[in-house]
Amino acid sequence: MKKTILTISALIMACLAFYGWKPLLEQPSSPQMQTFYQESVGLGAMPADSASRFIVDFLGYTMLNPRAKLDPLYPEIETNIHNYSQSH
């Protein structure tokens, strides 16, 4: 009986955890992430020191705001940074 109650409780907790994070996964991009995305698109046209500063700012922002990694634009920004790093 205790196993059944514990199993049901665990399933309920897992469902609540999933649905608690679901709105974060479906949220629109924050204004800051939109700005980072717009800047990341133009990394190739920036001087090297400006691009480096942008990358440091972006990494610092995501370290201070871990939920930023759940933003829909985060993978695209990372791809733009990776592509810039490969070409320079």
Structure, explained:
Helix 2 runs parallel beside helix 4 (74-87). With 88 residues, the chain is mainly alpha-helical. The protein is elongated and about 65 Å long. The chain has helices spanning 2-25, 31-41, 48-64, 74-87.
Task: Summarize it.
By secondary structure, the protein is mainly α. It is built from four helices and no strands. Helix content is 75%, strand content 0%.
Strand proportion: under 5%
Number of H- or I-type helical stretches: 4
Considering DSSP H and I runs of 4 or more, what fraction of the residues is helical? over 70%
Global outline: elongated
C-alpha-based Rg, rounded: 19 Å
Tell me the layout of helices and strands.
Blueprint: H1 2-25, H2 31-41, H3 48-64, H4 74-87
Helix pairs in contact: 2-4
List keywords for this structure.
88 residues; mainly alpha; 0% strand
